[in-house]
Amino acid sequence: APNGGAAQSGRKGTVRSLVGSSRPALANILIGDSTDPVCESVFRSRGHAVDFKPGLSKEELLSIIGKYDGLVVRSGVQVDEDLITAAKNMRIVGRAGTGVDNINVPAATSKGVLVMNTPGGNTVSTAELTMSHILALARNIPQAVSSMKEGRWDRKKYTGTELMGKTIGVVGLGRIGREVATWCMNFGMHAVGYDPILTDDAALAAGIEPVSLDELFACSDFITLHTPLTPETKGLIGRSNLDKCKKGVRIINCARGGIIDPVALVDALNLGKVAGASLDVYPSEPPPPELKELVTHPKVVCSPHLGASTQDAQVRVAKDIAIQMCDVLDGGEYVGV
Ligand code: NAD
Ligand code: MLT
């Protein structure tokens, strides 16, 4: 499964057979993206050597990766086939976070490299950011703040909309999606949701009305996206599905940028079909010049991929991934695989 397979089902087991018991106990670990210092401390306390080198270029990474047994990343390092091929001694890649779409999991698996993530470690932070985006979008807060800082007093221009009584459509009812749905219901919203895996009974037990994707598009005042980026979700919010939405729908994306077709979204914003969009993630990050029209659009609220950027979540995921990887290297139990 895209976000870590067994990690989502909480599978546990031993991996002695996977990592090999004849290897030396001490491993060489590279931390390739910026993580909380607790990550490095855990590896050291368990007897492993660690290099903390965030921000290396692809060429630099390719030239040094061969000497490492383990690699820790967030979303910066692209763990593609080239890197995996060059990583001759690699045994584990750990994602200090949820989405593993920056890791070529099939290529890693074919080389016997275990891929792990830390499901759940940043759920609350990302759900809270999503709520901030929903409220900011409903009340035009970022635009109003900018206008005041520019010396204006535009009370009428920034008239917003209430959440109470409106319908929120949640696409992807996993950890974050369900958390967001619950908070939206606490604001008096009606929550409908679509998830091909979750049973209707489980959705109903969470207070969410299970609907088809087409029904969700037709009835939602706000649509919030919480799926992984997969071939099925890439470009999901494109021209044809936007046509199925209510006029004046507001769209929030704190999952993965590639789920929205940016050109179709800009057109829908210009036509008034979409009243506003609030984005934390982009098809390519940082957004290249061709996304400038989207990012600078007056009806778009944006943040630079801050979903998991709280001290709480960063300490949690950095610690969790180091413990999980150490457990594997020590031939113990594993989670998040
Ligand atoms: P999760 O695995 O708990 O939930 C994902 C859900 O999406 C699952 O229930 C799955 O069945 C569902 N899904 C898969 N394909 C679908 C489809 N085609 N249509 C509808 N639903 C589908 O994951 P999560 O922890 O809730 O994370 C969700 C997303 O948020 C991931 O893409 C993750 O990478 C992203 N994320 C972003 C940030 C950020 O910083 N903005 C932080 C954490 C997670
Ligand atoms: C994730 O999938 O966990 C997020 O994108 C957060 C991060 O970048 O670490």
Automatic annotation (TrEMBL):
Keywords noted in UniProt: Amino-acid biosynthesis, Aminotransferase, NAD, Oxidoreductase, Serine biosynthesis, Transferase
Gene Ontology molecular function terms on file: NAD binding; O-phospho-L-serine:2-oxoglutarate aminotransferase activity; phosphoglycerate dehydrogenase activity
GO biological process: L-serine biosynthetic process
Residues spanning the signal sequence: none
KW Protein transport (keyword) present: no
Stretches that traverse the bilayer: none
Highest taxon in the source lineage: Eukaryota
Homology family: Belongs to the D-isomer specific 2-hydroxyacid dehydrogenase family.
Protein name listed in UniProt: D-3-phosphoglycerate dehydrogenase
Residue window of the full protein shown: 16 to 352 of 965
